[in-house]
Amino acid sequence: MTKFCYFYDRNGDTIELSKAEALHLTQGEIVAHGVIVSDTACDWQRSAFIRGGGKLIASGKNLDALCERLEELNVSANNFKIVSEPIPRLRKGDHHAIIQVADSIKGPVDLKNPETVFVLIISGEGCWLSESDEEAEQAWKTLKYKPFAFCNALPIKIARAMINLTATHGDSVFDPCCGSGTIPLMAAELGFSAMGGDKSWPNLNISRKNIAHFGFDAELLQEDATETNRATGCIVTNLPYGLYLPISEEVLIGMLNNFKGLTKKVSIVTTDDISEKLTDCGYQINQHILSKSNNLVRHIYLTEVI
Question: CA 155 to CA 172: how far, in whole Å?
Fold first, then answer.
């Protein structure tokens, strides 16, 4: 049976979110730190945190075992190239490992114009070789260069991962606190129908300019998140926070109560632990993930309305 192997970002600040998104998209099993094996192929380019992978060719408990398995399988390829993913990143010896694995594959090597690219994952927990597309630059990463940005804007990787964990095919994605437009921009790039709202007209205007700058469309309206009546497939939002954008408990409860009438799937990121408030308002918390950046801790909630 064909298997697929993927590796994901292991940055300590976002490791739990990275792991959750990778498991959700691959529907696989973690076999080592940063490594997932799955029965199904995954379009990993859509992921915020999966960094590569593909069809699993062979694996072993160590490099020698992997090479023995490759020889047993009589693996061959024309004009191939091997790229390595050492875990941890500073692990030494990956160049020699590439040579050893290449010697176990029948066929010529071509580093400049390869027909086949293999990814070699080298870990203290095992080694995996998968066949992958040539390393491709993920175009969505350029979205972080919005012409108009706020210092407290949600990082695009977190926004993308939240959308991937929440939205399904055919959903519209609504951010009722859209600020500079990061979430609707990312939703549009992922191919969803994107919607945004904000009480502040200047914020909404900035969102429009940012989204238009990258050639995407979103339905943006000036409206209060406690009063909006736009039904949607799901809500993904970064609640206002900080010195200049605080919200009162009354406004927060008003938002949560209003969201329930718009969709069953609500994902929220905030700097406060609002677990009790979510439960009291009738939400089931499916996942509560922490993401840390410098002194800022973000609480990411993936919920559904009961």
Answer: 21
Nearest to 150 by CA among 178, 180, 177: 180
CATH number belonging to the domain at 4-132, selected among 2.130.10, 1.10.3430, 3.30.1560, 3.30.2130: 3.30.2130
Beta bridge partners of 196: 175, 220
What tokens were used for 263?
């969709």
Please tell me the pTM assigned to this model.
Answer: 0.93
DSSP single-letter state for residue 76: B
Q: Do domains 4-132 and 139-305 have the same CATH topology?
A: no
Q: Which residue from 184, 173, 182, 175 is spatially nearest to 150, judged by alpha carbons?
A: 182
Which residue, among 133, 136, 137, 104, has the nearest Cα to 118 in the 3D structure? 133
| Residue 265, helix vs strand vs coil | strand
| CATH class for the domain made up of 139-305 | alpha beta
- Cβ(27)–Cβ(38) under 8 Å? yes
Q: Which amino acid appears at position 6 of this protein?
A: Y
- Domain ranges, ordered by start, for the chain: 4-132, 139-305
Please report which helix (H) or strand (E) contains residue 200, including its range: none
pLDDT tens digits in sequence order for the chain, 306 residues long: 899 999 999 988 999 999 999 999 999 999 999 999 999 999 999 999 999 999 999 999 999 999 999 999 999 999 999 999 988 765 556 789 999 999 999 999 999 999 999 999 999 999 999 998 655 667 899 999 999 988 778 999 999 999 999 999 999 999 999 999 999 999 999 999 999 999 999 999 999 999 999 999 999 999 999 999 999 999 999 998 654 556 889 999 999 999 999 999 999 999 999 999 999 999 999 999 999 887 889 999 999 999
Burial 188-206 (b: 16+ CB within 10 A, else e): bbeebbbbbbbbeeebbeb
* Residues belonging to the chain: 306
